[in-house]
Amino acid sequence: GKVQANMVSLFVSMPAGKTVMKTVITYNRADAEDLTVLKWSRVRNELKKSYSKLRQYDGQYLAYSILDEAVDSIGPVIASVTKEIRREKKILKSTQYKSLETIHEIAYELRQMSRKLKPFIRVLQHVIEDDRISPGPTVFLRDVLDNLENYDEEVKQLIAQCVNVNEEAEKYRQRQMDSTLYTLTVISAVFLPAQFLTGVWGMNFVFMPELDDEYGYLMFWILSLSLMASMLVFLRCGRLNV
Q: Is the whole-model pTM more than 0.85?
């Protein structure tokens, strides 16, 4: 399946002249029935507990928890894509790299994912640098930012794996082409002595004693086969030396 992304808006209100965040609002434009929509299950479960930190602190910690869950949702996606790349590698090797369409689609989805992670990283950096955020949540937000940057690096590594698969396919096709050209070259070189002798004895000269010889035809084949065998040995030894 394709990697899907949903845009989630996060609004935090802070009364004028105060440092306490009172209200946190999240908004998701996607259909609520969509299975890919973040349900904030972890945050909801914490809110149900009277002793949880979400109940003890203000909206800053709630905003951190929402961002943290959003970032953690990236991990399963990366794990799934990693398995898909490994499976596709095995399929390509077994099918001799016949079709790279799937690996190209995966690489495209990963590049799109990397582009969408960059604004997320910038938002977190901006929130961390905001002086209105108290030091407590800022420490947790730095951990979220570290996780997000690690995920971004993993996505880049997966893109590099897709590029490597494409390069392996090109090398395989190049080897196939080289092998085909070598085979054609060997065939042409092996039959070259016979073509040479045919050309020599096919000339319209009056005096050519081999043409009237009783064993002339047999001599032609013996000489041709000997030269062909010598050419095969020469080409084989030359390829081994290379």
A: no
Q: Residues 6 or more apart from 110 whose CB is under 8 A from it?
A: 3, 81, 155, 158, 159, 162
Point out the least confidently predicted range of 11-15, 58-62, 139-143.
11-15
> How far is residue 185's CA from residue 49's CA, in Å, rounded to a whole number?
78
For 157-199, write each residue's pLDDT tens digit. 999 999 999 999 999 989 889 888 888 888 888 888 888 888 8
Q: Is the backbone of residue 37 left (phi > 0), alpha (psi -120 to 50) or beta?
A: beta
Our CA angle for 196, 199, 203, nearest 5°, is 145
